[in-house]
């Protein structure tokens, strides 16, 4: 009988993680070795710290590196001068000097020991005296590990709060009590949600309980900072689990109430799930359709596409439920919420447009659309068309396999028709067959509103009939103008 391999012990797993981190750090030796020598020769300590060590342990170290040191910011600037390619001091108020060396961005912060006033989230910064002072103030134990960087690069792993065990267990916990940590900086509650998404970790029970009890404290945080964390959350590898945590603790009620607001609305297919769960499924399926990097606009549109349903729910005779015009109401709600969170105008409009358009396809019906209707679909979607394709496909969550197959086949057919029209016509820029100058010359008009009316008529004609020869366009314009004058 073949002997089954035994699972690795905790000690063995710790050793493997540390070995993996050492390998990651050796890949940066051309930066860390000379940097460590600069500080050591000047009599100062230097540690790689926080998220950089966490990511090295987890095998996902990036190009942004965080360090901490006992050197004061002015001394850090002096040491980096002549070695770094670029230095900037925008964070010097908080003891941070940033620099770029080759392809790496470095942030070097003087040891800190912070005090909070319980009102805002910005601490009164005082400089600490030791690495332990610095680590104990950090948000989570997985971010409270450090590696001493000396003349020879990485020299010593420092983990006074046992963050490595938390990383092994996949648990997000706080160095102090979560009540103390979140009271100091309520944004840490959203950071916990974000790390669930980015790392696939869970939160310690006491952390979840504290977020539930303290969710209203997030109101102390500016909308801009909330938005940053929400974006990192939704573009992470595990956003569904993070959203479930945010909703389950009540945090979503404070920052994105439209999402938990969908939980009580039964969907139109009566599949014993609410619109909230349907929306999570659509988000997951939209992620599966992404072509590469996380698509922020697509993911927000997938999560929020049905937020108008609670406001439009109607109980019909016979026991049915309808949500007429929920896409219109939902688009308005998206604009209101995303503006409140200070999103850039372009992002707000893109997400709202996708929400508004996501039901348009359901009028297609086995290829019944005319070419004019297909052109309008393309034109209305504009540069969002590829995202709209993904959103519509992701929105198919029916358990009826025959119906699901028919919906996907119908959309396949629509995409083929779109490709055909794109190949035959310049649909990226649908414009009238006559420009403003030609309109004025043909009708004898000066510049003014009537030229705009004529231009819009020709654009609608272009959408209905496709490209026209010039003489056809001129004849149509004359006929329109004769009727227009007769009506005045």
TrEMBL record:
Using the record for this protein, list the coiled-coil segments as residue ranges, or answer none.
397-424
Entry GO MF terms: CCA tRNA nucleotidyltransferase activity; metal ion binding; nucleotide binding; tRNA binding
Q: Which cofactor does it need?
A: Mg(2+)
Please report the stretch or stretches of sequence annotated as the HD/PDEase domain.
Answer: 271-407
User: What's a BP term from Gene Ontology annotated to this protein?
Assistant: tRNA processing
Q: Among its keywords, does the record have ATP-binding? A: no
Report the EC number(s), separated by commas if there are several: 2.7.7.72
Kindly give the InterPro entries that the UniProt entry links to this protein: Bact_CCA-adding_enz_type3_sf, HD/PDEase_dom, HD_domain, HDIG_dom, NT_sf, PolA_pol_head_dom, PolyA_RNA-bd, tRNA_adenylyltransferase
Alphabetically ordered keywords of this record: Coiled coil, Magnesium, Metal-binding, Nucleotide-binding, Nucleotidyltransferase, Transferase, tRNA processing
Uppermost EC category? transferase
Q: Which domain of life is it from?
A: Bacteria
- Note the PANTHER family from the entry: CCA TRNA NUCLEOTIDYLTRANSFERASE 1, MITOCHONDRIAL (PTHR46173)
Q: What is this protein called?
A: CCA tRNA nucleotidyltransferase
Species annotation: Gordonia oryzae
């Amino acid at each position: 009988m073949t002997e089954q391999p035994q699972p690795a012990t905790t000690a063995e797993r710790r050793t493997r993680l540390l070995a993996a981190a050492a390998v990651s750090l050796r890949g940066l030796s051309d930066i860390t070795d000379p940097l460590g020598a600069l500080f050591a020769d000047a009599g100062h300590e230097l540690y790689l710290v926080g998220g950089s060590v966490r990511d090295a342990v987890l095998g996902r170290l990036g190009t942004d590196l965080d360090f901490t040191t006992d050197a004061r910011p002015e001394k850090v600037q002096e040491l980096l001068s002549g070695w770094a390619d670029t230095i900037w001091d925008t964070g010097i108020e908080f003891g941070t000097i940033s620099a770029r060396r080759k392809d790496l961005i470095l942030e070097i912060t003087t040891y800190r020991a912070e005090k909070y006033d319980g009102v805002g989230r910005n601490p009164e910064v005082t400089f600490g005296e030791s690495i332990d002072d610095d680590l104990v103030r950090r948000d989570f134990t997985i971010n409270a590990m450090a590696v001493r960087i000396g003349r020879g690069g990485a020299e010593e792993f420092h983990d006074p709060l046992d963050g490595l065990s938390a990383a092994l267990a996949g648990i997000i916990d706080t160095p102090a009590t979560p009540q103390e940590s979140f009271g100091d900086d309520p944004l840490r509650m959203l950071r916990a949600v974000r790390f669930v998404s980015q790392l696939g970790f869970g939160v310690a029970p006491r952390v979840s309980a504290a977020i539930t009890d303290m969710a209203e404290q997030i109101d102390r945080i500016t909308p801009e900072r909330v938005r940053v964390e929400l974006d990192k959350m939704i573009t992470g590898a595990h956003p569904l689990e993070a959203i479930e945590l945010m909703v389950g603790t009540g945090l979503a009620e404070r920052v994105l109430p439209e999402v938990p607001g969908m939980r009580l609305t039964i969907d139109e297919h009566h599949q014993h799930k609410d619109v909230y769960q349907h929306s999570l499924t659509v988000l997951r399926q939209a992620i599966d359709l992404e072509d590469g990097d996380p698509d922020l606009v697509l993911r927000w549109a997938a999560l929020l596409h049905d937020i108008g349903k609670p406001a439009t729910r109607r109980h019909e005779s016979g026991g049915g439920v309808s949500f007429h015009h929920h896409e219109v109401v939902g688009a308005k709600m998206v604009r209101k919420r995303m503006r409140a969170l200070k999103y850039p105008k372009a992002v707000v409009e893109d997400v709202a447009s996708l929400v508004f358009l996501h039901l348009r396809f359901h009028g297609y019906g086995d290829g019944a659309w005319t070419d004019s209707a297909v052109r309008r679909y393309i034109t209305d979607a504009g540069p969002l068309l590829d995202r709209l394709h993904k959103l519509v496909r992701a929105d198919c969550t029916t358990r009826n396999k025959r119906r699901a197959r028919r919906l996907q086949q119908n959309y396949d057919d629509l995409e083929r028709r779109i490709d055909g029209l794109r190949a035959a016509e310049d649909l990226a820029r649908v414009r009238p067959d006559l420009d403003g100058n030609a309109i004025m010359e043909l009708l004898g008009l000066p510049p003014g509103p009537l030229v705009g009316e004529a231009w819009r008529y020709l654009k609608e004609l272009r959408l209905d009939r496709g490209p026209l020869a010039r003489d056809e366009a001129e004849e149509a314009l004359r006929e329109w103008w004769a009727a227009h004058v007769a009506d005045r």
